[in-house]
């Protein structure tokens, strides 16, 4: 697949998550909530997660922001459900390295998350893509059992 076709596919995946976000809403019985914003561009997120034992049972988000920010939140909530807290943090580390253009562990199937890899070429947009991930990291680290 040519680079141009791959870029187009990635744009389509991002727009799909933006227009039809997965896990949008809030949890009434969440283990924790985290509110964060990106004052540079106005993105904001309200993340609620339910963690039982060491497993992320559910994750939902609400907020507003650009397509990259909201698509990333949708992808993140999908990716961490059913994972252990440590696995969720490992995914956040992989994502952070991908955003910074660093080498990362690509042995895991990142699924739709990989469509955000091109954001690393646009430093001003990295904070948009990482906002939800930073909220998840903050929440699980502060509430680790």
Account of the 3D structure:
The chain has 145 residues and is an alpha+beta fold. The protein has one domain: Sufe protein. Chain: A (Alpha-Beta Complex). Helix content is 46%, strand content 19%. It is built from four helices and three strands; from the N terminus they run αβββααα. The chain has a three-stranded antiparallel sheet, with helices on one face. Helix 1 (3-19) packs across helix 2. The N and C termini lie far apart (45 Å).
Strand content: 15-25%
Terminus-to-terminus distance? 45 Å
Number of domains: 1
Element-by-element helix/strand order: HEEEHHH
Number of DSSP-assigned strands: 3
Query: What value does the average pLDDT take?
Result: 92
- Helical run tally: 4
Protein name: Fe-S cluster assembly sulfur transfer protein SufU
Organism: Chungangia koreensis
What is the gist of this entry?
With 145 residues, this protein is of the alpha+beta class.
Itemize the secondary structure elements and their pairings:
Layout: H1 3-19, E1 32-38, E2 43-52, E3 55-64, H2 67-80, H3 85-99, H4 123-142
Antiparallel strand pairs: 1-2, 2-3
Keywords:
alpha+beta, Sufe protein. Chain: A, 145 residues, 3 strands
């Amino acid at each position: 697949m040519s680079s141009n076709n791959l870029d187009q596919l990635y744009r389509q995946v991002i727009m799909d998550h933006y227009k039809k976000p997965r896990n949008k809403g809030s949890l009434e019985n969440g283990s924790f909530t985290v509110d964060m914003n990106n004052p540079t561009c106005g993105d904001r997120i309200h993340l609620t997660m339910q963690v039982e034992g060491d497993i992320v049972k559910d994750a939902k988000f609400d907020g507003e922001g650009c397509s990259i920010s909201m698509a990333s939140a949708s992808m993140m909530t999908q990716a961490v459900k059913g994972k252990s807290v440590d696995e969720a943090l490992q995914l956040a580390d992989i994502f952070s390295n991908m955003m910074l253009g660093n080498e990362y562990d690509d042995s895991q199937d990142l699924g739709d998350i990989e469509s955000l890899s091109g954001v690393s070429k646009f430093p001003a947009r990295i904070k948009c893509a990482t906002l939800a991930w930073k909220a998840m990291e903050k929440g699980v680290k502060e509430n680790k059992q």
